[in-house]
Amino acid sequence: MTDPLPSNDATWRNRFIALNLTRIGGTALTIFGIVVWQGNVLRQGGWTEVGFPLALIGLAISFLAPRWLARRWRER
Predict the structure, then answer these.
(1) Who contacts 47 (Cβ-Cβ below 8 Å, separation ≥6)?
(2) Where are the domains of the chain?
């Protein structure tokens, strides 16, 4: 029976990079959403209708996407 986990170092490195880029991207989206929500970036006084959903989506990406990727890689 073959081992389902890849033993190639490049594969592990690429997966590590993908997980961290996912976390960083989610965090950046969260920060951008908060700035739009509370700051004067797009509209004077903030833009709740756009910023708050962006912040929530960024949080979901930051916390849930790495788990989803790890589970997907484990199933292969």
Answers:
(1) 36, 37
(2) 28-75
CA dihedral angle for residue 62, residue 22, residue 19, residue 64, rounded to 10 degrees: 30
The phi and psi torsions of 31 (rounded to 5 degrees) equal -65, -40
> Where do the H-state alpha helices sit in 1-76?
9-38, 48-75
Which tokens hold the place of 29?
A: 């989206």
Structural tokens at position 52:
């708050």
User: What single-letter DSSP state applies at residue 45?
Assistant: T
pLDDT digit string (tens) for the chain, length 76 residues: 455 666 789 899 999 999 999 999 999 999 999 999 999 988 999 999 999 999 999 999 999 999 999 999 998 7
* Rounded Cα distance, 55 and 31, in Å: 7
